């Protein structure tokens, strides 16, 4: 069904990456390409200036290792670590990579989502391709 599937993941325990991977496999054509992506929120300059560059590099390296480990559950998946506001970065990356489907996990919405909006909500409303949200 889909040939270029983007699977954004949060590297925490609250989001079910297994469910996203399972849904992506079910939606994929036989020759589909999977890209597992994690968005690293930028550190404000006033904070970043106080953190040694080695710590920032080490943190980025650890995130990449966890991302590769998570993505290894889908054979031949590409891995991409991007930076920015999660919702905008996912939509921008999907557009740049010509993704035809985004499969992402979402938390159960709460009161704060009425005012702030969740990542999944932003992706659903702004993506140019199909979006499958897993709860």
From TrEMBL:
Name used for this protein in its record: UspA domain-containing protein
InterPro entries in UniProt: Rossmann-like_a/b/a_fold, Universal_stress_UspA, UspA
Domain UspA per the UniProt entry, residue ranges: 1-135
Family: Belongs to the universal stress protein A family.
Membrane-crossing residue ranges in chain numbering: none
Pfam families: Usp (PF00582)
């Amino acid at each position: 069904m889909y040939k270029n599937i983007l699977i954004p993941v949060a590297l925490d325990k609250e989001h079910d990456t297994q469910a996203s991977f399972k849904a992506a496999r079910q939606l994929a054509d036989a020759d589909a390409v999977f890209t597992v992506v994690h968005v690293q929120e930028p550190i404000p300059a006033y904070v970043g200036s106080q953190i040694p560059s080695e710590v920032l590099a080490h943190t980025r390296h650890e995130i990449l290792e966890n991302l590769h480990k998570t993505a290894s559950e889908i054979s031949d998946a590409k891995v991409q670590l991007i930076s920015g506001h999660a919702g905008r970065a996912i939509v921008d990356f999907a557009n740049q990579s010509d993704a035809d489907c985004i499969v992402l996990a979402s938390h159960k919405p709460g009161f704060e989502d009425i005012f702030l909006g969740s990542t999944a909500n932003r992706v659903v409303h702004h993506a140019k391709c199909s979006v499958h949200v897993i709860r």
